[in-house]
Design brief:
478 residues; mainly alpha; 18 helices; 78% helix; 0% strand; globular
Length: 478
């Protein structure tokens, strides 16, 4: 029996694994259904579509940047299983708001186009105008939800798994995440948006149920007090209640910025951990830019339907899952970055090949969009999908060992905060990538040409991966 099979049969891992599957599935189903519906049914220009895709990505990522320090503290100082249950309970309310936004937008489009039986009731103008704000508000709240869950799904592993099981557990969480993304993406591209609205609420309920079976994971340290370096002094100051109330929000924001800086700085004590965070961040910058580009690229460059855009995301997800499991087999349970520099160079070559195929693509005539069958009948379709799969497999092989660095080379009392520091740097890098993508779109750089940005980022990630491997070899044994 392999290590992966063994831990999947144990309560100390299985409920967490299934809860994370539901979380990744629901995140992706909601985000993808929303973006595809807006890109294909509401907007009608490449610039607007690329801008909305980038804005949606930014809205989801911002909470990771702002709240990861607090999330990391909370996860290290409170029972991780209890936090999971609270967060999954909140997800039910968030998805009810998101489902309402999807249904309002759906009815607004259907009734405006006179779709007959599909138009049940035309929403009033004020309600129709609230659809996209509701969608983005729910997406932001899901970002907050995932910010607090993110540090736990990795930091809890060393508490529930043996030392020789951590890499396998990390690989399973990564592979499971991307398989869940696979199925969420398939549904988002193929089911009607009104069905997606019902499914996201149902999955949120299931995730809450499975979270009840995650074993307790009490804090490993002695400190149970959260650190608020600026809010604490404000509360103890002699200012009046009105002044304190007015100063609360800006002080809270400043407090989190100070905490973020302290948290990220705390990872520099181990060069391997710090370099792993930097390399992971550039990887997810590349991933964020690619995911931003896929829907408008599919629609405007490849003249393909939303089902084809969904297929792109599916193949990307499958590839990362394959890479996640493959690198664990190659490393034989050892936490090492020795394959990372080469993996991301291979990824860069596949990105360049993907770009060249896109440039050589012959679009459909007129305003028609190809369905999956028509798309697969194109001479370059197989080459395009193979390049995309190669990007994802190489990316998965690059990133999974780096996550294991974050939980292996730090004390168990600090693992959640280390993951939170990683989330801060990751999210900042992804926001920068999204802003850069928006800038390129505003400067009228063709969406296909923006793929070259992703290839260039791979070179930076490879350099960081090489620095990490050098630090790994230089570290004392044991």
């Amino acid at each position: 029996m392999t290590t992966s099979t063994h831990i999947l049969r144990r309560r100390r891992f299985l409920p967490l694994f299934v809860t994370q599957l539901f979380n990744a599935f629901n995140d992706n189903l909601y985000k993808t259904a929303m973006v595809l519906f807006v890109v294909y049914s509401i907007y009608n220009s490449e610039a607007e579509e690329a801008m909305f895709s980038a804005v949606a990505s930014g809205v989801f990522i911002v909470p990771f940047f702002v709240l990861s320090a607090l999330a990391g503290q909370l996860a290290d100082m409170r029972d991780k299983a209890r936090i999971i249950r609270i967060v999954k309970g909140c997800e039910i309310g968030i998805m009810l708001v998101g489902a309402a936004g999807l249904l309002i937008a759906w009815q607004d489009v259907e009734c405006a186009t006179g779709a007959g039986a599909a138009c049940l009731t035309a929403p009033p103008p004020l309600l129709a105008q609230s659809a996209i704000p509701l969608l983005l508000a729910a997406l932001f709240a899901m970002g907050v939800h995932s910010t607090f869950l993110g540090p736990i799904k990795y930091a809890i592993l060393p508490q529930h798994l043996h030392s020789d099981e951590v890499l396998a557990g990390t690989g399973l969480v990564e592979a499971g995440t991307y398989l869940a993304i696979l199925f969420g993406t398939i549904l988002a591209g193929w089911i009607p948006v009104e069905v997606a609205a019902a499914v996201v609420v149902g999955i949120a309920v299931l995730g809450f149920i499975t979270a009840q079976f995650v074993p307790p994971a009490p804090p490993q340290g002695d400190s149970n007090e959260l650190d608020f370096p600026l809010l604490g002094p404000l509360g103890r100051s002699g200012h009046g209640k009105a002044t304190k109330a007015a100063a609360f929000l800006p002080t809270l924001v400043a407090d989190q910025l100070v905490s973020m800086f302290k948290l990220v700085r705390s990872t520099t004590h181990d060069r391997r951990v710090f370099l792993a965070i930097m390399a992971i961040s550039f990887f997810w910058t590349i991933g964020a830019v690619l995911f931003i580009q896929f829907p408008p690229l599919a629609k405007n460059v490849l003249t393909a339907s939303k089902e084809v855009a969904s297929l792109f995301l599916v193949i990307f997800s499958v590839g990362v899952a394959i890479g996640s499991v493959s690198v664990n087999a190659l490393l034989k349970g050892t936490v090492s970055a020795r394959f990372s520099p080469l993996s991301v160079i291979v990824m860069a070559l596949f990105v360049l090949a993907f770009y060249l195929v896109c440039r050589a693509w012959t679009p459909a005539p007129g305003d028609t969009l190809m369905d999956v069958g028509q798309f697969m009948g194109q001479p370059l379709a197989i080459a395009l999908l193979f390049c995309l799969l190669g990007i994802a497999v190489a990316g998965g092989m690059f990133v999974v060992p780096l996550y294991a660095f974050l939980t292996t080379f730090v004390p168990k009392t600090q693992t959640a905060r280390t993951i939170a520091a990683n989330n801060i740097v990751n999210s900042g890098a992804m926001v920068a990538g999204a802003v850069l993508a928006m800038g390129l779109s505003a400067a009228e750089v063709a969406i296909a040409d923006q793929l070259l940005l992703s290839a260039a980022m791979c070179l930076v990630s490879s350099w960081l991966g090489k620095k990490l491997y050098d630090a790994e070899k230089a570290a004392p044994a044991g």
